[in-house]
Amino acid sequence: MPSLAQAMSNPPSTDILEYKRKPDEGGSPIDFVHELTSQMNFIWRLWFSELVLKMPLVKVYSVPFNPAAVGAQTTSEQTVPVTGVRSGDIIYVNKPSHTAGIVLGNARVSASDTVAITFGNVTAAPVDPPEEIYTIIAIRTVA
User: Fold this and answer.
1) Count of CB atoms within 10 A of residue 58's CB?
2) Which pTM does this prediction carry?
């Protein structure tokens, strides 16, 4: 990719730019192909190409998970295998149903392919959340 100064002094003759994300940057290759018209300013095309390459990768996982019982008035961090997540990913977790007394706290990648979820129990008795299909969203920012 030319620098901005080089691009301004010597714009390319093509009107089609291809953007490809490498497989090692988060799973399957993602190809962004954008046809650009000759009326578009080349600086706009350069800005857009750099923007596309900086877009975060977002993956959604459906994971069966049966959390262990959580003791009365305490928290418990429990891990679930999620193939594809890695350190530094931002994690969001959705428990598909309500379990009285159970709250979800922090979620993080504790190791490659493993998500740790903090469960809290606000009741005076242990609560055992049921096995369910959790939705886990991983966001990987591109440096």
Assistant:
1) 12
2) 0.65
